[in-house]
Amino acid sequence: MENRTIAAIATPNAPGGIGIVRISGEKAVEIAARIFRPVSGKPLTESKGYCAHFGDVYDNNEKIDEAVCLVFRAPKSYTGEDTAEISCHGGLYITKRVLRAALDAGAIPAEAGEFTKRAFLNGKLDLAAAESVMSLIGASGKQAATAALNTLDGNLSREIRKCADDIIGICASLAAWVDYPDEDIDDTGAADMLPIFEKTKAALADIIRRYDCGRAVTDGIDAVIVGKPNVGKSTLMNMLTGFERSIVTDIAGTTRDVVEEKIVLGEIIMRVADTAGIRETENIVENIGVNLAKRRLERAELVLAVFDGSEPINSDDLDIIEQCKGKKAIALLNKSDLPMAADRKIIGDNFPHTVELSASTGEGRDALENAVRSIFKTNEFDPNSACLTSERQRQCCVNAINHINEAISALNMGVTLDAVNVCADCAIDALLELTGDRATSAVVDEVFSRFCVGK
Ligand code: GDP
What we know:
The protein is α/β, with parallel strands linked by helices.
């Protein structure tokens, strides 16, 4: 399969200054030469790598665009294969037409992530770095982009391979014992292993902790806005998004669906859902909205519980307070531009974080940002250190820690050393699955299926 030459549009499916059709594989330049004629008259097939040619793109004998064709020669390209990139005018029709011409000339359509997958299979980058390519593309802010770039540079893989190497060292001495079981490994041998396991475990736990702190910045968190009707939930949603997304009215029970938006609060990314006001109601349609809101509240990572600060707390508010128990939640005392009538103590006693704000004027937005920051400890996130960039990578670290724990217990219990060896081997497997050095093809396929076509 790897010999087939693939093609795809590498730029977004929208009008733009330029659109790029990327062709990669053994016949990339040959296929490009069938549809692209350089004005210089020199055959494209004789082009060296790192060369740009100006010319015309043809579909059969019909000229369809003027373009620049970049030629890369294996192994010095993104994929490690011969590659041609045709930069044409970025119209929706033109880029599709150029792609069609490339396919008619012998290329096959690239699958999602296939260019990067080939780069991985050709040893241009490891699996962790490949995943960071998608994180870099999806980054919504500076910290997320810096973290992804660091992983792409290999910071994470270096740290993970160091952990794996330390355990491989242990396995080497254990293998000696497995080969010569009659020769006792003395107590000092076992005692030497423990600190290495502990040190590796601590290093991995630290990597996980940093990822968890950074998740609000890199992946974003699922937040929900709840509150009884008319406290200002929709106004808050509009304030956070910066545009009118939710309908604001004085009529209670107006928002019935869940309205969802991705918002950026400082460096923090939140997928915020505005829900129907939660209150006791006989109205069947409103009740559907109330139940949707309650379900959303249950699975949210962060609850923004809104109260009308200009009114006393009532039984509907107490019901909301009750439902927020045990959740990461921030109480928002809204309408701070009006005189305060709500009992701050009731709110303060039930929420570790209270923010007084005015959704209509935007006053208090910074305080909300600080509260979210402190709950998710984003200040402890250092995008310049080795950063995990996916749940898959996190799970590999968790698995490695579990196997190390088993190895430590086996050592402490004085179980035979081959049991320790097996656990240590599993830990190494988990770490090398993260970097892709020992990932199965199913894992590799799964990683690249989440990519976009053309990357
Ligand atoms: P929801 O039912 O909780 O979504 O509440 P809305 O966002 O529809 O707002 C209900 C009413 O409260 C509207 O008349 C808003 O203009 C008003 N409101 C919302 N936020 C504020 C605020 O911060 N200050 C003041 N004075 N009024 C607000």
